């Protein structure tokens, strides 16, 4: 997949492209439905498969005092969109000036003249341009005028709830990772570089951990203990993670301590990816290392049961 970070990089319109537009935070099942339609339409005429997104997230620009915490990083978003079959990703810088672009100008100059849209695929609630003036009816009228078709994809629902980035953020904050998995079509993932911690995991408690710092601005599951899958150097391991503030030792700083099963490599400075599978319990304070170690043994046993269940397709 080729990524374009500005309109200037697009030297000529794409070949008979099918296009979808969105922020695509999380690349959830609703977004995936858009991508599938783009692939279907483009493949039917051997045209280009194109997606248009923005960086940073528009709400970080329009609502800087209270921006949403994002489900995935730009790096993750690009990986997931590429895996969906999209061939060209246009990732435009989002600024206040861009936000003031009239819908008619956005459609005619960017979508039609620059990208060359033949089929536009949008979600049921999509709108573009200044003040979201470019709603579905507007797009259909522009399509009739300029000569492109508009395809509206209905909402995807899980347990009667519309799949949306907003809904997923709420389930992540509640620690309901089962529902998050259903809406994403995969496990929720956090990533980071393993840092040197207090070195208590192995010597003091008896369970070595890989420590990840968590930026307070990142979307973090509810503090607690979770069964996880850990990806290091493209290999998958099982494990258990404590996300929180480590009250037993009074650290007070938000972080993730990952104990990886059957793993004894030195990985300080290495990136790991952690799939959050299921919540086991709340984070709590223990009287000391011995009581904590006894609880960790129980957590590991519970995590293994959960992860065996996942392995067996449950």
Summarize the structure.
With 314 residues, this protein is α/β, with parallel strands linked by helices.
How would you describe this protein?
- The protein is α/β, with parallel strands linked by helices.
- It folds into two domains: about 1-155, 3-Layer(aba) Sandwich (Rossmann fold); about 185-310, Riboflavin kinase-like (Elongation Factor Tu (Ef-tu), domain 3, Beta Barrel).
- Helix content is about 35%, strand content about 25%.
- The protein has ten helices and 14 strands.
- It has helices at about 30-45, 60, 75-85, 95-100, 105-115, 135-145, 165-175, 175-185, 200-205, 290-310, and strands at about 1-5, 20, 50-55, 90-95, 120-125, 150-155, 155-160, 160, 190-195, 210-215, 225-230, 235-245, 255-260, 270-280.
- The strands form three sheets. A six-stranded parallel β-sheet has the order 1-4-3-2-5-6, with helices on both faces. Strands 9-14-11-12-13-10 form a six-stranded antiparallel β-sheet. A two-stranded antiparallel sheet has the order 7-8.
- α7 (about 165-175) packs antiparallel against α8.
- It is elongated and about 75 Å long.
- About 35% of the residues are buried.
- Residues about 200-205 have low confidence and may be disordered.
Offer a few descriptive terms.
six-stranded parallel beta sheet; Rossmann fold; 10 helices; elongated; 25% strand; 314 residues; alpha/beta; Elongation Factor Tu (Ef-tu), domain 3
Q: Helix and strand layout, with pairings?
A:
Layout: E1 2-4, E2 18-21, H1 29-45, E3 49-55, H2 58-62, H3 74-83, E4 88-93, H4 96-99, H5 103-115, E5 119-123, H6 136-146, E6 149-153, E7 157-158, E8 161-162, H7 165-174, H8 177-184, E9 188-193, H9 201-205, E10 210-213, E11 224-232, E12 235-244, E13 255-260, E14 271-281, H10 289-311
Parallel strand pairs: 1-4, 2-3, 2-5, 3-4, 5-6
Antiparallel strand pairs: 7-8, 9-14, 10-13, 11-12, 11-14, 12-13
